[in-house]
Give the backbone structure.
Amino acid sequence: MPTTLTWPRRTARLELRPPTSEDIDEVLGFRNDPELNRWFLLTEVEPESFRSRWLAAAEDPDEISLVAVAGDTIIGTGGLDRSDSMGQGIGRPDADRLPWHRAHGSIGYMIAPGHAGQGYATEIVKELLALAFDDLGLHRVTAGCFADNIASWRVMEKAGMRREQHGVKDSWHAELGWVDGYTYGVLAEEWRQRRD
């Protein structure tokens, strides 16, 4: 995790912080819930694999995972993966100083079923965007979902992201077969205009 980030972060109702090994069982309690996981690409996670991947992410400066806590309860999670944007100059010795280097972020979020529909996901996404643009200086952030996941794309829109792509039957869903997918995005300058 980048050392320049300050934890915990606070929203109106949540404390956001990096996960600990003690948090994982609580998160797994809702991550494999059929009501929730029907909207994820990986519909069920194996506990030990999930544990090792999630804790390893804490050592990767380009992969930020967090838990969202309300009171004493973990009500959700969020994540930001930083990567290179598309750009010319790959392989150049100074590539790490070019504008596209580590300029793109991709976010994801998950809310425990008992806490859905209360605006928590929007708080998480807005704070992930603040982290991406204000703390890390990213140029652009995207997120995606199945088009049928209305709650998810409404969260992205409430957080100020715009629908950039509607992929017709571009996503495979285990229960529904080929379904449409949406990609949302927002630029740093758009985020700053809305914030200011």
Notes: The chain is about 30% helix and 30% strand. The chain has a mean pLDDT of 88. The first strand starts at residue 9 and ends at 10. The beta strands are 9-10, 15-17, 63-70, 73-83, 104-111, 140-146, 162-173, 177-187.
